[in-house]
Amino acid sequence: MTDTSLWVFGYGSLMWDPGFAYVERLAARLEGWHRSFCMKSIHYRGTPEAPGLVLALDEAPGAFCAGVAFGVAGDQAAAVLDYLHARELVSDAYLEKQLQVNLADGRQVMAVTYVIDHAHPQYCAGLGLEEQAAIIARSAGQTGANSEYLWNTTAHLAELGLADSELDWLSARVRMLASA
Question: Per residue of the chain (180 residues), what is the pLDDT tens digit?
Fold first, then answer.
């Protein structure tokens, strides 16, 4: 058995670009939260003048989010947390929480999870899917096009067999807008 002293739950870019070493990677499910394009991106996938949208976890009774949990070796935990703080807390729109996730192998673990701060100015819940698609199709930031972020996330969810009908619709709509 590996020394897995830290778990990290990924539901967006962490699924396909964790940026850190891990000893376990399993599909996982987080209850009571849903994945949503409810955060304006002013760094990575947009700019302050033309914000993009990135995924965040928004709390909702009865909801769930399917994603990936990464188990990190004990001797790497501090370095991974430092890395995640620099990456995920760049604008303080996310809150870092320890939440229980259900791993595909039946285990339940507490995992570092980044959720949206409802009081932060980057929080933008309630946008319609068509508006989200228009923003994503036209936005880009430090790490590239907002559409690539959406398409990578959708592709990796499909590879894992994790359905997200809203993201699938957005992905198809953004492809239509990008080709027009």
Answer: 467 889 999 999 999 899 999 999 999 999 999 999 999 999 899 999 999 999 999 999 999 999 999 999 999 999 999 999 999 998 899 999 999 999 999 999 999 999 999 999 999 999 999 999 999 999 999 999 999 999 999 999 999 998 899 999 999 999 999 998
Please give the Cα distance from 93 to 45 (Å, whole number). 14
**What CATH number has the domain bearing residue 170?**
3.10.490.10
Q: At what angle do helices 146-159 and 165-179 cross, to 10 degrees?
A: 140
Active site residues: 88
The CA distances from residue 107 to 27, 77, 103, 143, 178, in Å, are 11, 20, 5, 34, 41
* Residue closest to 157 by CA, chosen among 148, 167, 172: 167
Burial class (CB in 10 A: 0-12, 13-18, 19+), 63: middle
Give the domain extent around 121: 4-179
How many structural domains are present in the chain? 1
Burial 116-138 (b: 16+ CB within 10 A, else e): bbeebebbbeebeeeebbebbbb
